[in-house]
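Might you be able to review the protein record set out just below?
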Amino acid sequence: MERFRALKEEGMNAVLISCSPFQQERIPLRRVLNAIEAGLSVFGRGGVMVYQGQCIRWVAEISTDEPVPIEAYIERYGSEGAGRLFWEEYGLIPGGRSGFTLGHLTRRHPPEAFMGLDCRRELLYPNHSHFDLYGNHISWFCGGLSVGRWSELEKTIREFERGIYPSPVDILVSEGPYGLYRLAAEKYGFKPSPEGYVGKCHLCTDVRRHLVKTGDFPALRPKKFYESLFPKGSG
């Protein structure tokens, strides 16, 4: 509470507090509840926004005082119920590890299901972007795909205005993950997962983790993002 008071004295008049099954894997829900209580005391009801507040109930039904592993939701709600919580109510995006680790909890589709779905909006007109500590400018939630260096933001904007994009951003803008899949299958020996994909982002991530090993696509960075997607001892 003292930290909130100090921040308010410096001019901050509102706070956003997150609750997530993935955050609560490491942090007990009790800390989130304490932060909300302290925030309300200092900033008032209009000064506290709880992001994904519906998750509080899910976590609380399992544990308030201990971190909750993802497997606990499946045990508590069953595969179908946990899948609905993660993919529908939470709105999980199937990029990164989520499609690989939680894809079995929802319906999956072959690559052809994503034909014609480009990534123009996500890459060129995102409602927000991320600047990582390695200097990469990550558009939207497209982890592992750098549209440029954030230290050269003006250069990136100029090139984008002229329709110049680094590969494979160019393919994703025009053809989407299915176009990237076809390139990877025809020229780099990529084999799609027989189980299918939760969404186009899942397909894109699977294709990119194959292509990053070729070294032909410098925009596929940081490399450690892809290392985290490979099981230990593979790749």
Remarks:
- Residues 88 and 106 are 9 Å apart (CA to CA).
- The chain has a mean pLDDT of 95.
